[in-house]
Structures are given as structure tokens and as C-alpha cells.
Design brief:
3 domains; cytoplasm; Chorismate Mutase Domain, subunit A; six-stranded mixed beta sheet; single chain; tRNA(Ile)-lysidine synthase activity; alpha+beta; about 40% helix; Rossmann fold; five-stranded antiparallel beta sheet
């Protein structure tokens, strides 16, 4: 049931396991406990409570009681969604879940978290992305081993079906608590799960879909190597965090590689693991080749004959927050560090740029407006390059092709 080759790629330290209380994660917990006991591997268990359903708190407590019976340490990680948050709730919850789990296992002295995704999850994700018109990247199977958020993520049950896990639990007289939204047609995954049952009538089942997704993954690995080569040859990055694309080199590559690289650039700026729909990428690609300016996914793209400049859209950077820690990740890309907390961190904006004096040649005003800045009331204390200060540092994350989770 568990892929031991996947588990062998864990990093040192205790092994974290995410358990929601559903059948998949409970089966993972039981099987992983047996595996860990035979190898003297320390297990740590966490449940993320998104507080999106009335039952979620009790389900988290139920997992706690199960772990107590299994003599395993358990914590509940609570997500508090901002009251003014907007946008895709499911994606925000996924981001929060990964961040909470990563911070938790690092605090416990570990660097690896095991997840309970199954062959059915893989097939459902394939169909959902097929409905969105996804290309090779979206239709490829999720990785059994991936790195992200500073830790390693393992999915040792991608070759196991959900029904097999339920059978495993039934044999052990072990109960579980499935999320009722899994049967609610309001949610796309629930509708997809029911559609998959219908497709079995024409011999399209989770196993066959998963097989196709894995083959696409193999193809994607080859394509990704070419995209990485293209990125190295045509991209550069400025000290202000902009990405500069050489169109002369870019246009020599096949169109599909150009489009995939554009997708990765957008994801770099937005911080999202999901790219815009492929149709939007194709339209953007056409505008870039035509030398036209554009905006997509919070990224401003300048139009020119020889180069194309990507920068953050000022209106979508985070608002002002208290700098009550010595180190904060701001707008997904900037690491801001101070020796003495107590300032405010926010965008430089129009007024902040005015305080910094003459704008350097080549720096567009909109790029400057989206830069991080340390404020003391109405005064800019520091900002990258324009107003440096020895006790405050700004470090931008360099562009790297994102790890497909």
C-alpha cells in the first residue's frame, strides 16, 4: 500500500504526517505507524483546521483522540483567514495548509511531511484540469516526491486506490470521518468524483487515467529540461526584481516552450502554484510577439522589439503591515530583515518614491511603486537600492522554475 521507495527519500529528523480524519489520511496514518515502528522512525501528526465547516473542530479533536490511542503526538494547526480576503478560497486554503505544515515540522526538528493523496485523487485532478483546458503541465501526474516551502513532501499512496484504503481500514475495524463536502455537488471535485464513476462504464477508470497522467509526467520532464535551458539563455533579473526577457533568443524556441516559460514567470510573480488558463497564456504570448504591453495575474509586461520587461503590478502588492518580526517574506519574493522590529512594512508607492529623490535611469515608476519599503509613520526608512540602510536588508528571490507539486 505504501511505496517504500518514496518513503526512503525522507530527510533527516522526525517524519510529519498530515491527517484530516478522512479515510485516506487515516489509512496513511495507520500504515505509516506500522512502517515507522519497524524502522524506529519518529512520527509527528498534524491536523489543519481551516474552520470552513462547523464540524472541522470536532474532526480535528477526533484525530487527536485516535493519535492518543496510537501513542502518537498530535497537534491542531488553525488557519485564520483574513476577514477582508478575496479570491479563490480553495487555493488560499491549500497555500495556508502547506505553509502551516511546513512551519510546524521545521519547528519539530523535521524536514519531511507525508500526504495521503491516492490514485483517485490523481485521476480526479486530471479530469478537473482537463475541464479547464490545461496543457501538459496541468495534466501531468503530481509528484510522489517534491520539495517546496523549505521541506520535502512525500506521497507514497499514488498507486493505491481509495477503495483499497477503505478495505484496509475495515479489516482493522478502524473508523474514519470523511468530509461531507466530498458528496456535495456544489464542489467541482465532488461532481468529478461522480463523473469518474460513470466513466467506468466505458473502461475509463482511475487506474487508466493515472497511467496516462504518469506518462505525461515523463514527457513533461523532457520538456521541462528544454524550458530550463531557454530560461537560462533568454532571462535576466534586475536588482529591483524585474525579469528581462531577450526576445531574440526567446523567439528561436518552439512556441510551446515559449508559452510554458511565460506561465512560469507569471507564477513567480504571483506566488501561486496555479497558472492562468492556457488560453490566457496563448493570448499573452501573441501580444508579446507583437511588441504590445499587457497585464496578467498581477504582472505588468512591457512591449518592445528586442526585450520584454516583467514587473509586479503595484495595485496587487500586499498592504502595510507591522514589522513585528525580524524577518518577513513580503509579496512572495522579497525577504525583508531588520535588526530592530517596530517599523511598518509595505509598498513604496508614489509618496515613498518621491521621498527617495531622483529615480535611477531605467527604473520605471510603476516598478518602484511595487517595491517593499520600511516605514516609520509617514517616512520611508529604507527601500531596495533607492534608500539602503545597513541594519535593514531586502533580498529578492531569484527566478527559478517552480517545482510542480
Amino acid at each position: 500500500m505504501l511505496d517504500h521507495d518514496v518513503l526512503s527519500q525522507r530527510l533527516r529528523g522526525p517524519l510529519g504526517v498530515a491527517v484530516s480524519g478522512g479515510g485516506d489520511s487515516v489509512a496513511l496514518l495507520i500504515a505509516l505507524r506500522d512502517w515507522a515502528n519497524s524502522r524506529e522512525v519518529a512520527l509527528k501528526v498534524a491536523t489543519v483546521d481551516h474552520a470552513l465547516r462547523n464540524e472541522s473542530a470536532e474532526e480535528a479533536r477526533w484525530v487527536g483522540r485516535l493519535c492518543r490511542d496510537l501513542d502518537l503526538p498530535h497537534v491542531v494547526l488553525n488557519w485564520h483567514r483574513a476577514s477582508d480576503a478575496t479570491g479563490n478560497l480553495a487555493e488560499q486554503a491549500r497555500h495556508a495548509r502547506r505553509a502551516l505544515l511546513a512551519d510546524w515540522i521545521v519547528a519539530e526538528g523535521g524536514r519531511t511531511v507525508v500526504l495521503g493523496h491516492t490514485r483517485d485523487d490523481l485521476a480526479e485532478t486530471f479530469l478537473m484540469r482537463l475541464a479547464r483546458g490545461s496543457g501538459l503541465a496541468g495534466l501531468s501526474a503530481m509528484q510522489a516526491v517534491s520539495d517546496g516551502n523549505g521541506i520535502r513532501w512525500l506521497r507514497p499512496m499514488l498507486n493505491t486506490g481509495r477503495s483499497d484504503l477503505r478495505g484496509f481500514l475495515t479489516e482493522r475495524n478502524q473508523t474514519w470521518h470523511d468530509d461531507p463536502s466530498n458528496e456535495d455537488d456544489l464542489y467541482q471535485r465532488a461532481r468529478t468524483r461522480k463523473a469518474l464513476a460513470v466513466l467506468q462504464g466505458i473502461d475509463i477508470d482511475a487506474g487508466r487515467i493515472a497511467q496516462t497522467a504518469h506518462r505525461l509526467r515523463d514527457s513533461r520532464i523532457v520538456v521541462d529540461r528544454h524550458i530550463a535551458d531557454l530560461a537560462r539563455n533568454c532571462l535576466s533579473q534586475t536588482r529591483f526584481g524585474e525579469i528581462i526577457l531577450s526576445k531574440i533568443v526567446f523567439e528561436q524556441a518552439p512556441a510551446i516552450l515559449q508559452q510554458q516559460l511565460l506561465r512560469d514567470i507569471l507564477r513567480y510573480f504571483s506566488g501561486s502554484i496555479h497558472a492562468p488558463r492556457f488560453e490566457a497564456i496563448v493570448r499573452l504570448h501573441g501580444r508579446i510577439l507583437a511588441g504590445e504591453a499587457s497585464t496578467l495575474s498581477g504582472v505588468q509586461i512591457s512591449g518592445a522589439d528586442r526585450i520584454c520587461r516583467f514587473s509586479r503590478e503595484p495595485a496587487l502588492v500586499p498592504p502595510m503591515v507591522a514589522m513585528d518580526e525580524r524577518r518577513i517574506i513580503w509579496d512572495h519574493r522579497w525577504t525583508v530583515s531588520v535588526l530592530k522590529p517596530g517599523y511598518q512594512l509595505g509598498p513604496l508607492g508614489v509618496e515613498g518614491l518621491r521621498q527617495c529623490g531622483p529615480r535611477p535611469r531605467g527604473l520605471r515608476a510603476t516598478t518602484a511603486h511595487a517595491l517593499p519599503a520600511i516605514w516609520d509613520g509617514d517616512e520611508v526608512v529604507a527601500t531596495p537600492v533607492l534608500k539602503p540602510r545597513s541594519d535593514i536588508s531586502f533580498r529578492v528571490r531569484h527566478f527559478a522554475r517552480p517545482d510542480p507539486h
